[in-house]
Design a protein that fits this description.
Aspartate Aminotransferase, domain 1, Aminotrans_V_PyrdxlP_BS, transaminase activity, four-stranded antiparallel sheet, Aspartate Aminotransferase, domain 2, EC 2.8.1.7, alpha/beta, Cysteine desulfurase, globular, aminotransferase, binds pyridoxal-5'-phosphate, seven-stranded mixed sheet
C-alpha cells in the first residue's frame, strides 16, 4: 500500500497554508498538483538542455530532440500505442479534440451524424457543434439516466450507417461516471463509425490501453496527471492520422514548400506545426514515470477508499444529495458532486475556502448535465492519491459549520 506521508512530501504546495489554514486540495479534477521531480525537471530543462528541436545539427538541439522523442516513446509505452508516431503532442485535451473535429471537416457530408453524450465536458461538445455547422452534419446526443450513467440501449438505437464519429468521455469530470467505453467502441465500429475518447479524467486514475480498447483517438491533458500545463496527448490510429488533413500550417509540418505547392511532413510532424512546448513535452514523460512508480493499481485502490469514506461522511450532512453513480456500482471514480438543500453551491465553496479547503463549485464546464438535473451547479470534491481521510474530516466539519450559518 501507499505511504501517503511520504507521497505528500513530494508535493511542496501541500504543506502550504491558505487563509491561515493548512491547504486541503480537493480540486484535482480541475488540475493536479506537481511533485518536486516534475518542478525540478522544468528548471533542469532550461538550465541544461534548452534548444529548438528537429532542426539544429548542433549538440544541444540533438539532446533536446532526443529527450522530446524519448518522452513520446514513454507515452507510447504508457498507453500501449502500436507506433510512436501515433502519439502527438498537443497543448491539452481541448487542442486534441479540436484537431480531430477540424480534420473531420474534410470527411463529413451534409446529413452525416456525430454522436456525443449527455455527460460531456464543453470541450467535447463545442468543437463537434462547430464541425456540424460547417459541414451540415447532425449532432446527436446519447442520453443518460438519473444515476448519471449513459443509457446503452438508447446509444445502440442512435447508431446507424450515418454515424461517422462518436465522441465520448472515458470518465465524466462532473459526476465521476466511468463509461463502458470498450463496449461503446465495439458498437460504433459495427456501423463503421470512428471513436474519440476524451480521457482527460481517466488518465489521472488509470492506464488506458489504446490497442485493447481499439479506440481511433484518445486524448488527455498533462496538467491533470501531475505534468505541466499546456501539455497533452492525442493518440490516433495511423490510418486515421494519415487520412486527416493537417490542423495548422507552418514550420516543422512540411516536407517541401514552394509558392506553388507545399507537401506535408510525415507523422507525427504533420500535426505538430511550429515550435512546440518542448520543456512541457519532455517533463510530461517525467510525470508519467512518477505516477507509474507509485503504480496505477495502488492509486485506484486508495482513491476508491477515499471515495467510499468521503461519501459516507458527507451523507451524514442533513439535506445533502450526491449526483452520479452509486459508490458500489464499480462505475465511479473519486469525484463527489453534491448539493445541500436550500443552499447555493457557491456559498458553501466560498465559506469553506476561508478554512483553506479548495473544492470546485459551479457547472464544471458541463452545463447540459446541470440542466438535466435542473440545478445551477454542484459542489465537487475530487480526490487524488495524495489526499487523506483526515482532510475529508476537515471538509465535512467545515461544511457542517457552513450549513448552520446558511440555513
Ligand atoms: C479537463 C477536461 C477537459 C479539458 O481539458 P483541458 O486541459 O482544459 O484542455 C475535457 N474533458 C474532460 C472530461 C476534462 O475533465
Amino acid at each position: 500500500m501507499l505511504d501517503i506521508e511520504k507521497i505528500r512530501a513530494d508535493f511542496p504546495i501541500l504543506s502550504q497554508k491558505v487563509n491561515g489554514k493548512p491547504l486541503v486540495y480537493f480540486d484535482n479534477a480541475a488540475t493536479s498538483q506537481k511533485p518536486t521531480v516534475v518542478i525540478d525537471a522544468i528548471s533542469g530543462y532550461y538550465k541544461e538542455i534548452n534548444a529548438n528541436i528537429h532542426r539544429g545539427v548542433h549538440t544541444l538541439s540533438q539532446i533536446a530532440t532526443d529527450a522530446y522523442e524519448v518522452s513520446r516513446k514513454k507515452i507510447q509505452a504508457h498507453i500501449n500505442a502500436e507506433k510512436a508516431h501515433e502519439v502527438l503532442f498537443t497543448s491539452g485535451t481541448t487542442h486534441g479534440i479540436n484537431l480531430v473535429a477540424s480534420g473531420f471537416g474534410a470527411i463529413l457530408k451534409s446529413g452525416d451524424e456525430v454522436l456525443v453524450s449527455a455527460l460531456e465536458h464543453h470541450s467535447n461538445i463545442v468543437p463537434w457543434q462547430m464541425l456540424c455547422e460547417k459541414t451540415g452534419a447532425v449532432l446527436k446526443v446519447i442520453p443518460m439516466d438519473q444515476n448519471g450513467e449513459l443509457i446503452q440501449d438508447a446509444y445502440d438505437a442512435l447508431l446507424s450507417e450515418k454515424t461517422k464519429i462518436v465522441a465520448v468521455n472515458h470518465i465524466s469530470n462532473a459526476l465521476g461516471t466511468i463509461n463502458p467505453i470498450q463496449r461503446m467502441i465495439a458498437k460504433a465500429h459495427e456501423v463503421g463509425a470512428a471513436v474519440l475518447i476524451d480521457g482527460a479524467q481517466a488518465t489521472p486514475h488509470l492506464r488506458p490501453d489504446v490497442q485493447a480498447l481499439d479506440c481511433d483517438f484518445y486524448v488527455f491533458s498533462g496538467h491533470k496527471i501531475c505534468g505541466p500545463t499546456g501539455t497533452g496527448v492525442l493518440y490516433g490510429k495511423e490510418v486515421w492520422l494519415e487520412k486527416l488533413p493537417p490542423y495548422q500550417g507552418g514550420g516543422e509540418m512540411i516536407k517541401e514548400v514552394t509558392f506553388e505547392k507545399t507537401t506535408y511532413a510525415g507523422l507525427p510532424h504533420k500535426f505538430e506545426a511550429g515550435t512546440p512546448n518542448i520543456e512541457g513535452g519532455i517533463v510530461l514523460g517525467t510525470s508519467i514515470d512518477y505516477l507509474n512508480a507509485i503504480g496505477f493499481e495502488n492509486i485506484a485502490a486508495y482513491e476508491h477508499e477515499l471515495l467510499v469514506y468521503g461519501t459516507e461522511r458527507l451523507l451524514e450532512i442533513e439535506g445533502l444529495k450526491i449526483y452520479g453513480p452509486n459508490v458500489d456500482s464499480g462505475n465511479k471514480t473519486a469525484v463527489i458532486s453534491f448539493n445541500i438543500d436550500g443552499i447555493h453551491p457557491y456559498d458553501i465553496g466560498t465559506i469553506i475556502d476561508r478554512q483553506g479547503i479548495a473544492v470546485r463549485t459551479g457547472h464544471h464546464c458541463a452545463q447540459p448535465i446541470m440542466s438535466f438535473f435542473e440545478i445551477p451547479g454542484t459542489i465537487r470534491a475530487s480526490f487524488a492519491f495524495y489526499n487523506t481521510k483526515e482532510e475529508i474530516d476537515l471538509m465535512v466539519a467545515a461544511i457542517k459549520k457552513a450549513r448552520t450559518m446558511l440555513v
